[in-house]
Amino acid sequence: QLQLVESGGGLVQPGGSLRLSCAASGSTLDYYVIGWFRQAPGKEREGVSCISSSGSSTNYADSLKGRFTTSRDNAKNTVYLQMNMLKPEDTAVYYCAALHDSFASCSRVYVAYEYDYWGQGTQVTVSS
To answer: In this predicted model, what pLDDT tens digit does every residue of 97-108 receive, in sequence order?
Structure first.
């Protein structure tokens, strides 16, 4: 059973950066697409990014392109989300999720119900 644990969240000032990690255990991530999502208080869960199993393909929510970057190190069984130029509206709980599909191309940011496994989330707060 795949388990995902997010880390790296915290309090950051507007304009700052954070790098989130999603560490997997129980199975190799080699055959999984990994998505990042976020959920702000009172709002629906929003898809942030998608990275294919090999890492060769990524996609992002339109509003986040240019500020967020996802990458992966399959040797470490870990996926990352680098977040730059953070804004107060980026404040949310951030989740990683895994979709068991080594052929998926991340031609779009997949929606939540398409994923098989979820982490518990890490809080990101952007405030001065």
So the answer is: 999 998 888 988
